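Blinded run. Sample ID left blank on purpose so nobody reads anything into the name before looking at the predicted structure. Input follows.
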Amino acid sequence: MNDPLLIAGKGYASRLLVGTGKYKDFTETRAALDASGAQIVTVAIRRTNIGQDPKAPSLLDAVPMSHFTYLPNTAGCYSADEAVRTLRLARELLDGHSLVKLEVLGDQHTLFPNMPETLKAADVLVKDGFQVMVYCSDDPIQARMLEDIGCVAIMPLASLIGSGMGILNPWNLKLIIEQARVPVIVDAGVGTASDAAIAMELGCDGVLMNTAIAAAQDPVRMAGAMKKAVEAGRDAFLAGRMPRKFYSASPSSPTGGLIGS
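Blinded prediction complete.
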């Protein structure tokens, strides 16, 4: 915890956030989460049973809130009203839990965020006492608007949800990072460990992923790889990389004082 991720006043040792969907069963879900070292896990309220159906297996049994911080999300919501209702239900199911992830989608084909509806929902939720982490486009202006509303973390996409295309516009991400006063967490588009490392090297505060782990041939092993990538990327960012140069007249090893010269 010498370099914690601070969200809404609470510190987390891991900067990797992991989703709980798309695994073959809850046993694999838990194994992947353990391998990732993640402390914050996202839960799609409209798709995952956490008590809505008392007769079906509950994620709470395999992934208890005593071990993980739940981040209920609004995956599958296409309007502000729908998203607000979903998170109010989550708060009831989770005994007043207020830390949530807001996402309002624009269409079923791309799952790109609907930013007008996202801004509308964020305003309602913040006023209703929620601590809102918000999925958004990589638009620096709209990211600033969400922060001004009171969101506790900004979560721009790197590329489309589930695409695995990696970071397509690092320049916009840098603009968002430079202006933000709250954590910036890449959400969507990470495909492999190098994508996660690059996000962290850019200065992102964390990375959230689901499909990149759950859809891997070996999800548990990929979860471990992502853990190491996020840690390495963070260390590289803090260390400060060397300047880029087209060429250098200075050799990497000194020439003065060579033996026999």
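Unblinding after everyone has recorded impressions. Strands lie at 5-7, 10-12, 16-19, 40-44, 69-73, 99-102, 131-136, 153-156, 185-187, 206-209.
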